[in-house]
Amino acid sequence: MADKKKSPKGDSRxxxxxxxxxxxxxxxxxxxxQKLVALTAYDFTFAQLLDSTGEVDVILxxxxxxxxxxxxxxxxxVTLEEVCYHTRCVVRGVAxxxxxxxxxxxxxxVSPEQALQNAGTLLKNxxxxxxxxxxxxxxxxxxxxxxxxxxPVMGHVGLTPQSYNRMGGHKIQGRSTTRRAQTSADEVFEDxxxxxxAGAFAVVLEGIPAELAARIxxxxxxxxxxxxxxxxxxxxxxVTHDLLGLQPDFSPKxxxxxxxxxxxxxxxxxxxxxxxxxxxxxxxxHAVYEGPDVSIRLxxxx
Length: 302
Ligand code: KIV
Fold this sequence. Notes:
Layout: H1 22-26, E1 36-40, H2 44-52, E2 58-61, H3 65-68, H4 80-91, E3 98-102, H5 112-124, E4 130-132, H6 140-148, E5 153-158, H7 164-167, H8 185-198, E6 202-206, H9 210-219, E7 224-227, E8 235-238, H10 240-243, H11 261-278, H12 292-301
Parallel strand pairs: 1-2, 1-8, 2-3, 3-4, 4-5, 5-6, 6-7, 7-8
Helix pairs in contact: 5-6, 6-8, 8-9
Bound molecules: 3-methyl-2-oxobutanoic acid.
3-methyl-2-oxobutanoic acid is lined by residues 40, 60, 62-64, 102, 204, 206, 227, 237, 239.
């Protein structure tokens, strides 16, 4: 019988959607009609909304929280404690998807031992089922160290946002044949191979030409999950706030905004403000009037 994750109240969710595990994600390699669907979440409410569709395979507690939740211009300031906190919030809302926690800048680069401690914390205290970390060849030993103690790792190569300062911003990688500020196509390819060789169960390909992503996808035996990497990956990931249009001024080319929720939020807030000021809200329908019990309790107090 398939495992059922329990919601906080102990009841399993109603949808028949299966519980995703690392082996079930691995099995989706090359299944063009069953592409992996991944999204980010940082809190309970969004995690529950995404998960209750039954359509999301992987929920990533991304260090993109630095931008979309905390308002930083990049992910560099995000700490392990913050990712751990947001992972705990997300896990409480998820019954089906695989929850992956992102390892923030400087939580894994110092040494494989440091990475091991911190990845362990994200599983033990955060409740994540796997971690994601950025980097290819340079992270081979680190990924292998985590995998050796059964911490599943998702790799991340190409445009690695934690390399913001080296890249001079969030810049597409793998376009040139020689390394300058950006990683060359061959280097991105080698990075992806290294991640697979170290034992990762999947790899995010971010911000690279579609042809390169296609070449990597057919060379690897683990699923590739693309973001700004074309249509030939084994799956796709987006930052949920981007697909919902929650930040109306942020619209990079690779993002498709499925809704304009930012506009919706502002419209709702304007309506609320206007009804509060006009006295239309709260109406009788939204008010609680004192029943006998309340009156009695109030009377006793006075
Ligand atoms: O931090 C994040 O959200 C990510 C995804 C966009 C891949 O790394």
